[in-house]
Structure formats: C-alpha cells, structure tokens
Design goal:
This is Helix-hairpin-helix domain-containing protein. This protein has 174 residues and is an all-alpha fold. The chain has 2 domains: 51 residues; 97 residues, no CATH class. The chain contains 8 helices and 2 strands, in the order ααααβααααβ. The protein is rod-shaped and about 105 Å long.
Length: 174
C-alpha cells in the first residue's frame, strides 16, 4: 500500500507539472495522466477493499443482535427488581414475576416470583423440572417464603447447578 501511495503521488505530481507547463500538448498530457491516475487508483482501492475490509458475516450481525437483546432483558430484570424492592404495591400492580397473570403490559425480563408463582410458572425457570417445581411449592408451603436462591436451594434440596439461574431469573418477594 505504501508503494502504491508513492506511485500515485508521483503520478499526480507529474500530472500537475504537465498541466502547469506552457502549450497545448503538455496540458492535454497532464489531464490524461490525472484522469488515468484517478481511474487506476479507484480500481486499486476497489480491488484491495475486500482484502483489507472483509464483508461482515450476516451471522455475526444476527449474533450481535441476539447478544444486545439478552443484555436488554438483563437490564429489564434489574429494573423490575429495583421496582419490586422499592414499591411492592407497584410491583404487584405491574405483575412483576408473575407470568401466570394476564394481561401483563410490563416486561420484567422474565422474572419469576418464586414465593408466589404457581408450579407451571416455576417450570419456566431454567433447570426447573416439574418435579423440582412441585418440591419448591411443597417446601414453600411448609417453611414459608424464601429470601434468596441459596436459601431455596438449601431448603428444597435443589441441585447446585441451577442456583445461578435461580438467582438471575428468580424474584423472592416476601
């Protein structure tokens, strides 16, 4: 690229020198040299572009959009948690953590209120099978509300692998 740039600079300098020279013929030669340099440099740039700037893979763009959507849902969960902690009445009215209620206009990012949701809603939590959902409901009835995913895992004897997902998607309103 540096050699090409030096060649184009030399051709442009020669073209301007020829244009500035006296007489008709040098002026025409200079204009032709200027036009030729412009055409050759454009073709070179178009040819080199593919190597220097490979086209974006459509799957990369799709993946970026999916990642952005996941990050956005994470911010929705954080905002819904903030509302639930600051104003339980508003959280109840917005039906935060209750996918079993219809209609729900507020998007809470997929939170599930572990202390109040029915078993079919608990099954929406990652890693929660129908058996685990029933175990959570039984344990909730026996011991009362849970305050964290860790307490839930301990009380209901849940597999440790699902605790991070319970912490991310579970809401523990008392």
């Amino acid at each position: 690229m540096a050699v090409a740039a030096a060649g184009y600079a030399a051709a442009l300098t020669a073209a301007y020198e020829a244009i500035e020279a006296q007489g008709d013929r040098p002026h025409t030669v200079g204009m032709l040299l200027l036009l030729g340099t412009w055409l050759v440099s454009t073709m070179h740039a178009l040819g080199a572009r593919q190597r220097l700037y490979p086209p974006a893979d459509p799957s990369d763009q799709r993946n970026r959009r999916v990642v952005e959507a996941a990050r956005y849902r994470r911010t929705l969960r954080a905002e819904a948690r903030r509302i639930a902690l600051e104003d339980r009445g508003l959280a109840h009215e917005l039906r935060i953590g209750r996918p079993d209620f219809d209609p729900r206009a507020y998007d809470d990012g997929g939170l599930i209120d572990v202390n109040h949701a029915p078993p079919q809603a608990l099954r929406l939590l990652p890693g929660v099978t129908p058996e685990i959902a029933d175990r959570i409901v039984r344990c909730r009835a026996e011991h009362g509300a849970f305050i964290s995913a860790e307490e839930l895992a301990l009380q209901a004897d849940l597999p440790p692998r699902i605790v991070p997902d319970l912490a991310e998607y579970g809401l523990f309103l008392t």
